[in-house]
């Protein structure tokens, strides 16, 4: 039984079958990559997992509980954090403020009217946020305006914000899309470090095979909305079906 | 039955004005993505174009009428308008009488010019700023335009009559076999409705059948692709802003005989026109027209005594109530496309 | 102090001192002089308006400044607060405290209902929803609920809701000892009581109502600082910055925005209650959407999202309005008499449109200028000027040290 179990999920947009009978099992504390050509349904699948889309049929269980019909913030509170394709951070806030928000969310839940305390007096939260920034090598930038940072640093901050919530499952949507090689490698290193240091499951949707093969322990290939194969990276590399899906070669 | 017919007719003229203003608002929103709070002011300026032309035509000088004397026995001084002295008394009087319809010609260049200046001079600089800033700057402009008009024309409404032939009312009741005076309807309101229908038809035909219109519609649907084809969509959108301003202005010109123009009439219509746009569906031109007429008629039904006795005050809030229900249950409005400002 | 850091404490103290000495600060010219007629603003009713509108805009800023939700119907809460207070004076008694409390409660309830519905949408839809609700309130107050002949005459329509000798006032004092209408009071201190102080040819007026309003404004300002600096305030700023990230960080944005909406509605109700406490008369025009627009204008003029901005904006708006409406053509001629006649007449002819009854036009122009060139309002303008001076200074220092510093 994996930590995330997707069973018979179907999703249609008008005449387009975006997801057809998707079955997927992500094992606890592994790095699981989902790859596939454009239009294979990767993003649709991700949006189903985080509650943005509701599938027509099927079930999605996280740690024994259904996520279907729950709002994104509820699913997040269950322990699933999401990193977006373009980094989504609080651009108007400083770096340290960005980092404090997920820590507040972890401590206080989805809503708390704590309007009387002074933020500066939340020593515990500030400490944890600074600690987190240090582990990301961003402690010096703590008072910087976050919108002004480089894309690589925004990505770093976003991943850090997700980790600050201590999620059980981290979902990454093409985390290195549009990044320079150096930033991509830095992101790979960061994810490797996370994997070593934490008891965390990572599911990653990715185009860049370099990233996939550097990180993944299991790979699912999605094509036309249906899983084609699921195997270890070594077995995927030479798989005829995968070559067919990607290159259109007939086997 | 006759009461229902009467209410539908009564709703038509207000509905026409709503539809025309909402049509312009939607054109601007759909092309430029700007929520124009100054659109009501354009309607108001249109109405004052009619006032201005009528004042110009009535400009006069004093002459001594030898044939008459005042009570002291001196020759009487009478005022003679320049128009009458140029065109002769009969033609001149006819021209003055037709001031409001003539103001249509007078207002079109003025309104298009105002539209161009507004877009190029001000709104252009706000495309990249948040929606709130666009609302605020056009709101500021609306105040300024309104106050300028107030400074020039004063705060009181200025009665501006329709041509002589259109004064009076038509008795629909007799025509349809009801008793006389059951359904009477002023001629000018019929003219207004017909005129609105003509303008609306004209705008749709322009967008539907001209190459220019087709490019604009394509740009509304997918701006980037049209730009990739090497078409200067910005310039066309600017022209559409001018067209939208002219539509609002014309709606105002012809409305002058229905309600004496005053400086705050634009604001009064603007709030309701927004509601109309929202009900029709943000960005949908047919939706704006449909919702304009529907809400105009609905408002007129709600003001029937039979209805008011059951729901006191319903006539005052019906439009807002409908808008709130629509926004909450069907945010894209009656005919809006999915996904346009739906969150 | 009071749980604030040093900078905020200083700000609070400065505002407190300004409020305390406002009768002096606003009356710089000797009584009776022509400058005094024009520029003195230390009159009780004007000073009361400064602080009451300050409260209103401070509250509006908690919603718009922090969350970015632009409400175009905030005047509805001001009006509801005003009516509630007058009803309290009619039914219970002339003490202002119960009236103010009721204003806050009633507006809070309305804000909860209107906010719950309006906040289901964001952006321009939210603005239009609030506008629609406010116009509904206005129309109802003006027509059905204001028809003296109807059985639910809550607002007395066009005339406005006012006190009468027949009111019950169950706590006594339905009629004053002279047999006229009683006056509003704070545990016996009449709101219109004033003490006057004459120093030389200067005359200063200290009004009880003003000091009550100023004290409440200070509390309101203090609360708003606390909200800005609290984790709750941080969350509201996060809502403005990125709702998507909020949702995917396990935070429910709806209750945050609703709480901000209700708080700002209560502030508006409080302001309305105070207006009625100073002058027990409430009219529907206070709820009209142009009144809502004026709240937005004051907030923008001062500087949205800053602490002091609302007070600056409200004060500036009221002061500006007061001066401009007093200037007329003869005053202009007097001022410009040093010019050659033709030029003088021409300039007066142009300025004529901007002064006296034309002050709306000046305000509209000023508002546009601020939005176009100074989106941060007068506060940002002040900051830019002070930065200009500071940079000049650092440039000088840099020259002395003969090495250049990189531009900021």
Reconstruct the topology from this structure.
The complex is a heterotrimer of chains A (251), B (343) and C (408).
Chain A: E1 4-13, E2 16-26, E3 31-35, H1 42-49, E4 57-62, E5 65-66, H2 72-78, E6 80-83, H3 95-108, H4 123-135, H5 151-163, E7 169-173, H6 181-197, E8 201-205, H7 209-215, E9 218-223, E10 226-231, H8 233-237, H9 240-247
Helix pairs in contact in A: 3-4, 3-5, 5-6
Chain B: H1 2-32, H2 39-57, E1 60-69, E2 75-81, H3 82-87, H4 89-97, H5 99-121, H6 131-153, E3 169-171, H7 172-175, E4 184-186, H8 187-209, H9 211-221, H10 223-228, H11 233-255, H12 265-280, H13 285-302, H14 305-310, H15 314-329
Antiparallel strand pairs in B: 1-2, 3-4
Chain C: H1 6-20, H2 22-25, H3 34-39, H4 44-67, H5 75-91, H6 96-118, H7 123-142, E1 161-162, E2 185-186, E3 189-190, E4 194-199, E5 202-207, H8 208-229, H9 231-241, H10 243-247, H11 253-278, E6 281-282, H12 289-302, H13 309-326, H14 329-335, H15 341-351, H16 359-373, H17 377-401
Helix pairs in contact in C: 1-8, 4-8, 4-11, 4-12, 4-13, 5-6, 5-11, 6-7, 6-11, 8-9, 8-11, 9-11, 12-13, 13-16
Q: Can you walk through the features of this model?
A:
The complex is a heterotrimer of chains A (251), B (343) and C (408). Chain A is an alpha/beta fold. Chain A is 37% helix and 24% strand. The longest helix of chain A is centred in the C-terminal third of the chain and has 17 residues, at 181-197. The model of chain A has no long low-confidence stretch (mean pLDDT 88). Chain B has 343 residues and is mostly helical. In chain B, 68% of the residues lie in helices and 7% in strands. In chain B, strand 1 (60-69) and strand 2 form a beta hairpin. The mean pLDDT of chain B is 86. Chain C is mostly helical and 408 residues long. Chain C folds into two domains: 47-294, no CATH class; 327-403, no CATH class. Helix content of chain C is 64%, strand content 5%. In chain C, the strands form three sheets. Chain C has a two-stranded antiparallel ribbon. A two-stranded antiparallel sheet of chain C has the order 2-3. In chain C, strands 4-5 form a two-stranded antiparallel ribbon. In chain C, strand 4 (194-199) and strand 5 (202-207) form a beta hairpin. Classes of the chains: A alpha/beta (251), B mainly alpha (343), C mainly alpha (408). Chains B and C meet through helix 6, helix 12 and helix 15 of B and helix 7, helix 12 and helix 16 of C.
């Amino acid at each position: 039984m994996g930590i995330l179990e997707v069973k018979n999920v179907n999703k249609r947009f008008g005449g387009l079958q975006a997801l057809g009978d998707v079955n997927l099992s992500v094992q606890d504390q592994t790095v699981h990559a989902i790859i596939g050509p454009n239009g294979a349904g990767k993003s649709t699948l991700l949006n189903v997992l985080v509650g943005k889309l509701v599938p027509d049929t099927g079930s999605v269980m996280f740690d024994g509980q259904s996520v279907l019909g729950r709002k994104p913030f509820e699913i997040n509170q269950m322990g699933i954090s999401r990193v977006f394709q373009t980094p989504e951070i609080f651009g108007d806030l400083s770096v340290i403020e960005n980092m404090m928000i997920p820590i507040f969310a972890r401590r206080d839940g989805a809503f708390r009217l704590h309007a009387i305390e002074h933020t500066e007096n939340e020593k515990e939260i500030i400490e944890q946020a600074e600690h987190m920034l240090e582990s990301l090598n961003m402690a010096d930038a703590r008072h910087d305006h976050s919108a002004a940072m480089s894309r690589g640093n925004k990505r770093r901050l976003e991943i850090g914000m997700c980790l600050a919530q201590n999620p059980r499952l981290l979902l990454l949507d093409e985390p290195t899309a549009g990044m320079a090689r150096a930033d991509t490698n830095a992101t790979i290193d960061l994810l490797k470090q996370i994997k070593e240091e934490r008891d965390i499951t990572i599911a990653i949707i990715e185009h860049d095979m370099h990233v996939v093969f550097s990180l993944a322990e299991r790979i699912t290939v999605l094509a036309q909305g249906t899983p084609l194969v699921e195997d270890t990276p070594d077995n995927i590399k030479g798989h005829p079906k995968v070559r067919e899906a990607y290159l259109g070669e007939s086997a | 039955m006759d009461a229902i017919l009467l209410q539908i007719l009564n709703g038509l003229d207000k509905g026409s004005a709503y539809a025309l203003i909402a049509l312009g608002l939607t054109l601007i929103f759909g092309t430029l993505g700007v929520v124009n709070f100054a659109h009501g002011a354009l309607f108001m300026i249109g109405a004052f174009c009619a006032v201005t032309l009528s004042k110009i035509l009535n400009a006069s000088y004093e002459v001594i009428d030898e044939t008459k004397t005042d009570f002291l026995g001196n020759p009487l001084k009478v005022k003679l308008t320049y128009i009458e002295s140029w065109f002769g008394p009969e033609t001149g009087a006819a021209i003055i009488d037709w001031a409001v319809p003539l103001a249509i010609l007078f207002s079109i260049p003025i309104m298009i010019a105002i539209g161009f200046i507004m877009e190029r001079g001000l709104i252009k600089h706000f495309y990249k700023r948040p929606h709130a800033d666009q609302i605020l700057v056009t709101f500021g402009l609306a105040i300024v335009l309104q106050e300028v008009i107030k400074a020039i024309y004063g705060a009181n409404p200025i009665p501006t009559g329709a041509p002589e032939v259109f004064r009076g009312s038509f008795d629909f009741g007799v025509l349809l076999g009801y008793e006389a005076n059951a359904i009477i309807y002023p001629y000018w309101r019929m003219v207004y409705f017909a005129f609105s229908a003509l303008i609306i038809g004209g705008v749709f035909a322009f967008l539907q059948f001209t190459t220019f219109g087709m490019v604009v519609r394509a740009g509304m649907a997918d701006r980037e692709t049209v730009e990739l084809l090497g078409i200067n969509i910005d310039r066309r959108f600017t022209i559409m802003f001018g067209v939208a301003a002219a539509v609002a202005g014309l709606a105002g010109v012809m409305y002058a005989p229905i309600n004496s123009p005053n400086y705050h009439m634009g604001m009064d219509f603007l709030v309701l026109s927004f509601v109309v746009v929202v009900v029709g569906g943000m960005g949908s031109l047919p939706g704006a027209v449909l919702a304009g007429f529907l809400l105009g008629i609905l408002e007129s039904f709600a003001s029937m005594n039979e209805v008011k006795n059951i729901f006191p005050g319903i006539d005052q809030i019906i439009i807002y109530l409908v808008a709130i229900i629509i926004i909450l249950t069907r945010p894209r409005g009656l005919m809006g496309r999915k996904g346009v400002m739906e969150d | 102090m009071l749980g604030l850091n040093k900078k905020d404490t200083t700000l609070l103290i400065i505002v407190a001192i300004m409020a305390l000495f406002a009768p002096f600060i606003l009356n710089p010219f000797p009584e009776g002089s022509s400058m005094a007629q024009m520029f003195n603003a230390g009159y009780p009713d004007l000073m009361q308006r400064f602080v009451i509108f300050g409260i209103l805009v401070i509250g509006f800023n908690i919603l718009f400044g922090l969350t970015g939700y632009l409400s175009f119907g905030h005047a509805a809460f001001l009006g509801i607060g005003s009516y509630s207070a007058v009803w309290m004076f009619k039914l219970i008694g002339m003490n202002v405290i119960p009236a103010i409390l009721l204003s806050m409660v009633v507006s809070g309830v309305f804000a909860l209902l209107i906010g719950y519905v309006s906040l289901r949408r964001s952006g321009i839809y939210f603005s239009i929803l609030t506008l629609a609700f406010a116009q509904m309130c206005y129309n109802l107050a003006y027509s059905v609920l204001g028809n003296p002949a109807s059985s639910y005459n809550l607002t007395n329509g066009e005339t406005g809701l006012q006190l009468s000798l027949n009111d019950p006032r169950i706590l006594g004092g339905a009629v004053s000892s002279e047999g006229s209408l009683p006056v509003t009071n704070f545990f016996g201190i009449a709101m219109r009581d004033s003490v006057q102080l004459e120093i030389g040819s200067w005359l200063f007026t200290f009004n009880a109502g003003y000091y009550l309003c100023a004290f409440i404004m200070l509390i309101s300002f203090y609360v708003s600082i606390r909200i800005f600096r609290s984790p709750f305030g941080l969350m509201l700023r996060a809502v403005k910055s990125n709702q998507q990230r909020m949702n995917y960080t396990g935070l429910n944005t709806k209750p945050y925005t609703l709480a901000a909406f209700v708080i700002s509605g209560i502030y508006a109700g409080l302001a309305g209650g105070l207006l009625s406490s100073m002058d027990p008369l409430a009219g529907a025009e206070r709820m009209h959407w142009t009144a809502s627009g004026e709240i937005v204008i004051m907030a923008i003029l001062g500087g949205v999202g800053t602490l002091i901005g609302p007070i600056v904006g409200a004060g500036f708006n009221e002061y500006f309005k007061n001066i401009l409406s007093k200037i007329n053509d003869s005053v202009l001629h007097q001022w410009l008499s040093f010019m050659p006649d033709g030029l003088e007449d021409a300039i007066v002819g142009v300025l004529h449109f901007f002064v006296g009854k034309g002050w709306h036009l000046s305000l509209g122009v000023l508002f546009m200028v601020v939005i176009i060139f100074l989106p941060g309002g007068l506060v940002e303008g002040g900051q830019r000027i002070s930065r200009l001076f500071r940079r000049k200074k650092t440039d000088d220092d840099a020259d002395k040290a003969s090495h250049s510093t990189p531009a900021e």
